[in-house]
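Support request, priority: normal
Reporter: lab tech (M.K.)
Component: structure prediction queue

Hi team, I submitted a job for YqjF family protein from Streptomyces cellulosae yesterday, and the status page still shows it as pending. I've pasted the exact input below so you can check whether something in the sequence is tripping the parser. The sequence length should be 256 residues. Please let me know if I need to resubmit or if it's stuck on your end.
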Amino acid sequence: MTSLPSPQPPIPDGPVTGDAPRSVRRPLLTQSWLNVTFLHWPADPADVARVLPPGIRPDTVDGVTYVGLVAFRLHRSGWLGLPPVPYLGSFPETNVRLYTVDAHGRRGVVFCSLDASRLLPVAVGRIGFGLPYMWSRMTVGARGDILTYTSTRRWPGPRGARSRISVRVGDPIAEPTGLEHFLTARWGLHSTLLGRPVYVPNTHPRWPLRRAELIACDEDLVAAAGLPTPAGEPVSVLYSPGVPARFARPAGVPRR
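Reply from support: The job had stalled in the queue. We restarted it manually and it finished. Here are the results:
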């Protein structure tokens, strides 16, 4: 008997939009992302696919996917509706992330690394949620309209992996392009928990985006995450003062 070919994952409905497709009434986690700078480079989907969890594939625009380096301040993180945790719930963070879709057509991101400056949240993220958090020495500084983010990895490694990003914040974006929505409006996280792929939905207001000029970018976090070193300047540089976010409980992802 001839076996039938495996069905392809459904195509997500239409382009990414700036508005959340769902609400989260009883959040597992609440936090704010402040002073957010987005840097993006195009990437070959084949290079990205090899580092993704089972059941997840690269999300693309015109056959191209992207690698994001996103630096920001995480602020007032709290669990299960409880008040935010002082000190431990606010810290700088810099992420290397990829753009993904699962067999249900749910778009999201996969984090290759999350550098953060608080050791206890790093340990909780790694042990409790299976996320690749890294403990790093970090700063976020502002001088006029110029923001500078620095990160030097302490643990687990590669020790010394670093980034230094400086941007000049520009004018507000009245209507983001389709690509700008694709790179910023991601309404879920694909990950692996206890050996099983999971999807964690999130919601937040529409990003208030601004143009940004890249002044300096010296980083090796992308290569440290096992991805090809970005070639040339990023094709997209954006800034946002930030948004509050709410995360729902994880849901399963079917294996292909």
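Helices lie at 45-49, 119-129, 178-184, 221-224. The chain has one domain: 29-248. Let us know if anything else looks off. Ticket resolved.
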